[in-house]
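Chain A, query sequence.
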Amino acid sequence: MSAALRDAGPPALLPIDRLRDALDRWRGRLPRVPLHTPLERAGRLGARLVTPEHPTWPAALDSLELGAPLTLWVRGDPARLARLSRSIALVGARAATGYGEHVALESAAGLSDRGFAIVSGGAYGVDAAAHRAALSSGQVTVAFLAGGVDRLYPAGNDDLLRRIARTGLLLAELPPGSTPTRWRFLMRNRLIAAASDATVVVEAGARSGSLNTAGHAAQLGRPLGAVPGPITSPASTGCHRLIREYGAICVTSPDEMAELAEPLGARLDGEEPGGEAGRVPGDRG
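Chain A, predicted structure.
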């Protein structure tokens, strides 16, 4: 390492004491298992390690530039990664209200019927409702995990996540065996936003983690929508703030959510111009 720094020239040189301190800090964060252990765990699950050279690597993740994942651990058929090319992220509160879960179910079902893959984070509340609706509609749903693909978290969603692995995808940038932590959830959120054509926040309180996902979507220039809720409901405070202060589009139906991903009247069902889908209210032809 010292030789490499010398070859890089004076600007790259650091005092050797600082280098030792940095190495000591990072050494403590390294996994204390043999390097082949994650591969063995993945093999037992039938999980795959996919790199950017893989033909179905989600090219949308490249928009993260230096923050793009180096690899993805995939639990499920890697060919389904291609479905991310037409996908919408539905995210929201873990402690969702009945209203939030209802909207998530209806939205995911409607978008699935329009051919969109549903992306979320596998958590309780809005995430789980969106995944369940997509599974019931026979559409691919993708869950980005904060730990390894062998750490099905939260435990209460174990059955749901196993169903997603069978017919959809569980994805993680961390190797099998990695434990979910708070900062890993925040790190995971950027992948949800980058992989999807648009992000919709269904229900979110003032401190909901889904607002972090919305922030990543906005930074990446991805379309961002938010579902309004009762003005008396603290569970919708975050959505209202996104609309008021951050330019999120107010969306109230699967049609409006689909327009985020396919704007300017793009056809969702292959209908030719002039058909019913191309008319506006009051247009009698």
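The chain is about 35% helix and 15% strand. Strands lie at 48-50, 72-75, 87-92, 117-120, 141-144, 169-172, 198-203, 224-226, 249-250.
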